[in-house]
Please model this.
Amino acid sequence: MPLHRGRTISLSLPPFTRWVKRLILVYAGIYLLMAILEVTVPLAHDWVQIYLGLIPQQVMHGMLWQLVTYSFLHFELLHLLFNALALWMFGSQLERDWGAKRFNEFYFFCAIAAALTTVAVSYIHLPGVSPLTTTIGASGGIYGLLVAFGMIYGENEIMMFPLPFMIKAKYFIWGIVFLTLVGAIQETGGVANFAHLGGLLFGYLYLKFLPRQGLAFSAAERYFSMRNDYYRWRRRRAARKFEVYMRKHDRDVHFDEHGNYLPSENDLGKGNGGSKSGWVN
Model:
């Protein structure tokens, strides 16, 4: 767990945060279900992997849900345990700092980006990489969390329990990056290493260049800004049309640049206290 003790973080037993716990339970439940299907209904087990795992050729033919669903499946128990442990140790601290909404956005952003990286790489005809290769596992999102942890807590030291030594978080994380890059070059882990690299790369880009409040908040803010601009434009246009209409009836009215009615001197002398028209908004 990232337990803060001065500048030292001990990787031991962190408290579960809400979404980290939910994700681990979902991953474990799906793995158990797949294990049961493999023994009892092998055809159903194979069908799930074919339609929910990430197969680049199928994604290019419209099975876009695989960009997300692949991350909920795992080949082996050790694969699941490593991802669950990393999610627990590193994700819990990030969820506490960011909150559930931004944590989930970042995690699945990295998982989808890793999937898209895998699809792109599968079509450049590298040895051992094919558009028909199935990729499953949450490692793309997990590696995104790793790079985020290294960027945010880079100067903190972590104790590598049960090993009796400490290392700065940034060196630990970038060591993982180096090993993943070497694995991708040497193809020791096949196409999965490119998924890991995609999670690492886009996790870094997210934290470096995207809004601190997150993509969802920024998109909502942009939407409401555009909506308000549209309503202001409609009010100004209505004000101009009303000016033209009144001039045709030998009356001169004026509005400011925001579409608010500007009372004339005659209006101010009518005993209404100089109040503005109902056009004021």
Summary: The chain has eleven helices and six strands. Confidence is low (pLDDT under 50) at residues 1-6, 273-281.
